[in-house]
Design a protein that fits this description.
By secondary structure, this protein is of the alpha/beta class. It contains four helices and 15 strands. Helix content is 29%, strand content 16%. Its EC number is 2.3.1.30.
């Protein structure tokens, strides 16, 4: 009996699931950028013109490669290419959560042992750096929902708590409590007062991002 072989080119279930997940993440990142940047004018512009998005996408691939011992050099080469094209240097070992948005992007540096949670926003010139030459956890942990302003430096294995906001050009070398605001050099932690004047757009508590 003649058995007819299927000529279907449909992807396997596992491949289809992987492609769907990638598509979901790309859409999620585009939606995040559109929400966070009032200058954006649609997905086509975001897809083509936003190096912060490109840097995160390339890093995700480099990070996957970094998990394989035989691909570590290739992962580093890809991260260097990423740096050259986008102006963002992210070590492939860094762990990055979902919906990270890097606005303007230029000059951002994220070290090897940095850990970034979900819904974090970084502006240009941010450094998540180390203060040790040892092969240890030496870079910051940034929890969910943190905003870090332009030119800010967060140095060492410090923890920036969820929802905290780091003002532009602040230098952070100590842990930051959740929901607080840090400004100055060295960074000074401030807790928002209960009677915050949210109607004033220049009020640090209403919008600490005004420092950005």
């Amino acid at each position: 009996m003649h058995v007819r072989r299927s000529t279907s080119t449909a992807p396997s279930p596992s491949l289809a699931t992987g492609l769907a997940a990638i598509r979901e993440r790309l859409t999620e990142d585009l939606d995040t950028a559109a929400r966070r940047d009032p200058a954006s004018r649609g997905r086509a512009e975001l897809l083509l013109c936003y190096p912060g998005l490109h840097a995160v996408w390339v890093h995700r691939l480099a990070h996957q490669m970094w998990q394989r011992p035989g691909l570590k050099l290739s992962a580093r080469l890809l991260s260097q290419l990423n740096r050259s094209v986008t102006g963002v240097e992210i070590h492939p070992g860094a762990q990055i959560g979902r919906r990270l948005f890097i606005d303007h992007a230029m000059g951002v540096v994220i070290g090897e042992t940095a850990e970034i949670g979900d819904d974090v926003m970084l502006y240009h010139g941010v450094t998540l750096g180390g203060r040790s030459m040892e092969r240890i956890k030496r870079h910051p942990t940034i929890e969910d929902g943190v905003t870090i302003g332009a030119g800010a430096r967060v140095l060492g294995p410090v923890v920036v708590g969820a929802g905290a906001q780091i003002g532009a050009n602040a230098v952070v070398v100590k842990d930051v409590p959740p929901g607080s605001v840090v400004v100055g050099v060295p960074g000074q932690v401030r807790q928002p007062p209960s009677d915050v004047r949210v109607e004033d757009p220049y009020d640090v508590w209403a919008d600490p991002a005004i420092f950005i």
